Amino acid sequence: VPFGALWRTGANEPTRLFTRGPIRIGEIELAPGRYSLYTEPGPGAWRVFVSRSTFHWGNAIDAGVRAREVGSLTVPVEELPVPVETFTIRPEPAAGDTVRLVLEWEQTRVALPILPNQELR
Prior knowledge:
The chain is mainly beta.
């Protein structure tokens, strides 16, 4: 994926996120439900978009998908000491109630902070 281009952040169908309770990804407040994630990778940071559009195909991130965005955040790139051959998305515990949603591929890692959102409960 070239830097500065929108990417579905996976293969084929959009990468989907399901939440049973209210959460925050960075400053983006999400009610329970289904969302898709897509990104705009850059050399030092990635911009991550959260959308209510979950059935679009692949990289068809058109005006309709963009209109359903609920927010975006920018996360720094961490360089990995050992390459990751297969693109991986996984949760990783962090301080307090925070979980990091980690995206890793080749020499790159980005991590999205996810917190329970008590204000939406």
